[in-house]
Fold each of these.
Amino acid sequence: MIKIAMIEDDAELANVLTQYLAKYNIEITNYEDPFLALSAIALNPYDLIILDLTLPGMDGLEVCKKLLLKHNIPIIISSARSDITDKVIALELGADDYLPKPYDPRELEVRIKTILRRCSKELELLKPEAKKEIFILDEKKQEITKDGEFVKFTPAEYEIMSLMCKRKGFVVSRYDILQNCSLLNSSEESGTLAVIINRIRTKIEQDPKNPKYLLTIRGSGYKLVK
């Protein structure tokens, strides 16, 4: 359901548009008073605003300016004013469209959906790109992939690497690794662990001597970077 705030003091026109647009899954809430409208829009989420310019108590252009200062909501100006200056000012302020009265409600419906489609695409472009996971652990298959490619580990290497994947981004102490990996004897010296870590690095690092994925955190343990 598309939710729209209409600021229109012509109650008859507002009623006609409300009934017509309801057939297209568009819910209109009309406010005849611009001050009430500004308060309501601050408290309620709307997808779009339809704004008349000739309003009681406050000029529509001033309402437009106040809305654009506080909200990032598309605005369609719906006005009987024929002065081109009003249209230019409204669009320069940041209104998304200007629809001169009288107009066919069908045209308004099309413009609403066109603007919302465009805004939706713009929001998608602004979304930060999801960071691609380098290492993926599949516990059911007991497999680990790097950049989508299967990496062949020995059982002990897999056990350590799977623990590191589960705690990706966090430092895992040598003690934790020895306690959580059944193929490693917890009484063994950490030097044995260091040997296995080095073997893992030869399989996942471009330069094992200067690792960028499986890091040694001096005095603490190891960390698999995100």
Amino acid sequence: MTPHAEVQTPYHQGSRTVQDKAGVRTQADHVGRSIGQGIRPVAAAFLEIQPMLVLGGADGAGAVHASLLTGAPGFVRATGPRQISVADGVPATDPLAETLARDGAPVGTIALDPRTRRRMRLNGRARPTPRGLAIEADKVFSNCPKYIVKRELYEGRRPEGPGEPRRGTGLTDEQRAFVAAADTFFLATVHAHGADASHRGGDPGFVRVTSPYALEWDDFPGNAMFLSLGNLTQNPRAGLLFLDWTTGTTLQLTGTAETAYAPDDTRTVRFTLTETTETPHASPWRWSGPR
């Protein structure tokens, strides 16, 4: 067998291309063994204490979005060895609401708990249910706590409900400052047979706003899977989600992204936005600052 002969793998050619550029195919094969289709008891228990879930997918026009779903712990739970249910689903005003009203929509999800710096990802296909959504899993896996900022969750919901979404085609000065100060965002990408939602974190300023229509960030060393960057090699459309942990306001960006490779093997992702959606108080939860 040659070093690059294919064995059974959870990766498509896009991820393989990036892994080879980074010289981490062997490491990726090792990490890839942790990807399965089943939801283990420890993962089911983790889901049932989560107050939020990020979901990524494409709308009917192909634009990609990352959306925030929230609820009392238990609103996300395993309902079978390969299935989770999400109470209520996404709000009717969310960019993915129409897509998720149909059976079989490819979605990626990530449950990230700042309290414990743990995260779990589940990718699959969604269908509407009388209570919200059901998602049948294709891939289930966890990641290390690297780049997750620790926060505490305060008791009680905020008194105000979600405000009316405000849409635009470029970042306002206030939004630019918000993005530049962020230490966390979520990234949604898609490929021909599925979708993925992932997390990016770093010190404030790790996301650089280069214009009202563009931003960039360095791709830090991670788990060597390169699921997101692999997807972007096949479909450049992407969605970003920023959350104001104090006010619950969300900022969703949709557009396209490309990865620039430098001679020193560093990578920079450059995102060009086409639409913004800001929703005041989208989350009812109040989180502390970094701990």
Amino acid sequence: MKLDIIISADNINEKYLENKIVVVIDMLRATSVITTALNNGCNKVVPFLTVEEAFDYRKNNVEPCLLGGERRALKIEGFDFSNSPLEYTSDKVKNKIVVITTTNGTRAIQGASKANRIFIGSMLNAKAVTEALKTLDKDVVFVNAGTYGEFSMDDFICAGYMISLLSTNKENALSDIAFTAKYIYENNKDIVSFIKNARHFSVLKSLQLEEDLTYCTKKDIISIVPEFKDGEIKIASF
């Protein structure tokens, strides 16, 4: 399979993604939140670009909805949750709809809507995602959410980890950027030591969100693969 990376939501070319499998990565923290919420029993996650859309969805929905997300890493006024995956516990989200809007992650998800299939990836479920990709055996583009439209070290090394997993005992056609991500991961397997210099890591640390950072950098603790389809994210079936 051919493997490639898009470095931020601002760099998405919708035409390029047509007929491809996409994995959206925003490990700090949107895709970690989505994966955690679904793993803890929420019915689905519905991503929106704007705060207003999120409020409107809850207002017009008869099912119980919880609002989560952030702007500039901070909780949105009137929302139930911030963008901390640790808040989305089973006792709060089970059998409910989680509506989410974030600065970078939900933009990347919506921007990838022309792809054939869109999966949600993070360090937490990287192995599960790559096992699914091996089964599908089609060209894959890893769409990194980035930070405010710019390259993000954390999303990049997460993509590198998945590319490394996909390359075990298999020859794939890697773009230059995919090869670089794989190389960086394989030479920096201690994720925190690498991404501690990332701008977004520093922002979260300054907000005393070290527990989020510790959680989001854990590898392969969740075995589900979320999929974005028809405006909703649910656990994928294969």
